[in-house]
Task: structure prediction
Amino acid sequence: MNTRKLGNSGIDISPIAIGTREVGEKSKQQTIETLQYAIDSGINFINTADFYGMGMNELIIGEAIKNRREKAFISVKTGALRNYQGHFLGFDGRPNAIKNFCAYSLTRLGVNEIDLYQIARIDPNVPIEESVGAIKDLIQEGKVRCLGLSEVNADQIRRANAVHPVTAVEIEYSLATRFIEKEILPEVRKIGASLIPYSVLSYGLLTGNLSGPLPKEDYKNMFPRFQGENLQYNLKLVEKLQDIASQKGITAGDLALAWALHQGDDIIPIVGMSSTKRVDKNINLVESIQLTSEENKLLNETFGIGVFKGERYPDALLKVVAS
Ligand SMILES: NC(=O)c1ccc[n+]([C@@H]2O[C@H](COP(=O)([O-])OP(=O)(O)OC[C@H]3O[C@@H](n4cnc5c(N)ncnc54)[C@H](OP(=O)(O)O)[C@@H]3O)[C@@H](O)[C@H]2O)c1
Result:
């Protein structure tokens, strides 16, 4: 499989990362099988967070990489607080808290070093320089290889990078969510970091497999773009994506992922994949699907910034993500 460079680290990495937020929901055996299959097939970039499954996801990843540590590149997000039910409790970016979280993650993963350690959200009560300073210490102690950030604005990227070089910035980016192209992506490129987009399929919206209204129990109901008229409007837009995709003989989801991959070699999308079959399909896509400059232009013009209706997060959460 072709590789991409991870920021200025000199590390070669798979062009997509495997997301693990959902692993707690799948059977443990299937998750381990899928992760091992992905690593053996060349997808060596595993994305997790200490709060995914409240530590359970790290334990499962630890088991999956036991005999594959040298091949796997593990990225961990930290600093978000949740209770035993997984309910959001706030953030903790104090230096000692970050060092404490890191110690637990190392144990759960069963590794001596975390490859990419990322602040999940910036704690509004702690200067970013202090949180990043803690990761700089961990790098000097050999417990972390590279510094990363998640859901940060351009100014936060600049401030963090002044303390220690930022290797990667994880943030929502897709044909449906392109605000980062104004300031954040240029800043990521200026400092030579990689962009690690999540929700490149916009929570399934861009697959063309959704219809509205969503079932009452669906968590996506909390996102304004999945509500009422917004959803109806956005589903009509997705039909345009399906039309373009079918002319290429592929699915809308594949085209949305291909578009993200096509926006630069410094972009390494995270994709949730719950089976070996899905891993195979996405590897095939990464290796075979090309976009012509006309197709790229058409997609960029049809799905410009702000075309999809409704915010990406509810009001309360918008306050703690990048804009
Ligand atoms: N930094 C942050 O704040 C943040 C926030 C959210 C997520 N994340 C990270 O990003 C990862 C991905 O999360 P996400 O919300 O972005 O999920 P996603 O990758 O947009 O969606 C995952 C689902 O898409 C399906 N899928 C994968 N490839 C596909 C394709 N080519 N065509 C159609 N469907 C496809 C998979 O289905 P199958 O079940 O069939 O495999 C999977 O269930 C998470 O696991 C997490 O690691 C980070």
